[in-house]
Amino acid sequence: MKKTALCAVLLTLTLPLTALAAPENYTLDPLHTYPHFAVDHLGVSTMWGRFGKTTGKFMIDQAAKKASIELQVETASIDTGDNVRGSRPRARDEHLRTADFFNAQEFPHMTYKSTVVKFAGDNPSEIEGQLTLLGVTKPLHLKVDRWICKDNPSTKKPMCGGNASGSFKRSDFGMKFAVPNVGDEIKLQIEVEGYKD
């Protein structure tokens, strides 16, 4: 009798833990998800830009310490703050969309897919993944600088998000135009927010 009661108590205690271990799926909020990048210009200053259109999904299971993420970025949505041609043949953002750089007509998207996500405590801390740019796929490591899950205070919808950072050489993807005057190393800062499906 006591053994049966003990088993029932143990089963009751483990049920909430099992429920917590369920993976949760989230869809990225495109209004609050932006990959930013920085590149050296002529050894004088650091130029910053961002991509305005990003979609994707992520899964997180905090109890099991598992997660995954997939991003798709529209290359034509690049914005460095120079999109007015004026008296020039083209603005900088127009040039960045050409075959010299992102070749947005032939490669309208770049993607990032995680392969391994490491945790520190309950939250993701590092992401190993594959970046596909200009039809070339290479590994890209991201450090998760901040991660928070909570209800949106206005809508009360469950959300997660944070910031990640990393870097890569654009020449590894075949984007060699103007190196080294325009730097080879691209530094990334990615802001992500997503809502539970």
Describe this structure in words.
- This protein has 197 residues and is mainly beta.
- The chain has one domain: Lipid/polyisoprenoid-binding, YceI-like (Lipocalin, Beta Barrel), CATH 2.40.128.110.
- It is 12% helix and 52% strand.
- It contains 2 helices and 11 strands; from the N terminus they run αββββββαβββββ.
- An 8-stranded antiparallel beta barrel has the order 1-4-5-7-8-9-10-11.
- β4 and β5 form a beta hairpin.
- The longest helix is centred in the N-terminal third of the chain and has 19 residues.
- About 8% of the residues have low confidence.
What layout of secondary structure does this protein have?
Elements: H1 2-20, E1 24-28, E2 34-41, E3 45-51, E4 54-61, E5 66-74, E6 78-79, H2 92-96, E7 109-120, E8 123-133, E9 136-151, E10 158-169, E11 185-196
Antiparallel strand pairs: 1-4, 1-11, 2-3, 2-11, 3-6, 4-5, 5-7, 7-8, 8-9, 9-10, 10-11
The CATH homologous superfamily is named Lipid/polyisoprenoid-binding, YceI-like
Shape: globular
Which structural class do you get from the secondary structure elements?
mainly beta
**How many DSSP H or I helices?**
2
CATH fold label: Lipocalin
Short account of what is shown:
With 197 residues, the protein is mainly beta.
Keywords:
single chain; 197 residues; mainly beta; Lipocalin; eight-stranded antiparallel β-barrel; 2 helices; 12% helix; 52% strand
